[in-house]
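Researcher: Structure for this, please.
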Amino acid sequence: MTSLTYQKILNKLDNFQEYLGYLYQLRQEIEDEEKFLSDFHLFGNTERYLQLSIQTIIDTSHLIIIDLNLKRPEDNYGAISILFGKKVISEDLSQKITRMIGLRNLLVHEYGEIDRKIIFKVLSENLKDLELFKKEISSFISKQEKNK
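Model: Predicted structure, token format:
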């Protein structure tokens, strides 16, 4: 891994950790689903930080693919598939991240049709999946640096 790519990924992961921190703070503010659904600050901030977190996953995935000189994917789903195929991430994580990319696409392109109950569920139950991405990518880039 080039030192430039390594630094770019570290910067992305720093941003990612910041976004996750905000999501955990937002989760603490939730008393129940009804409050979440009625508080535009809560669901609006949650949607934004989920979008940024998932975009960071996408960007990081593409950086790794470029650095490893792998065939460019046709889409973001393909990027995750490539990382799984090269054993950068686990199969379980690749499935979870693929669903997250679908959520990001809704947040970016279909924002008028977002089911806020899904956003509530992701915030309540799926932040650990985002943490797992960071853990697996950190492990991968650490191994890459050691093998230089």
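Researcher: Any notable elements?
Model: Residues 3-146 form a domain with the Four Helix Bundle (Hemerythrin (Met), subunit A) fold (CATH 1.20.120.580). Residues 47 and 119 are 7 Å apart (CA to CA).
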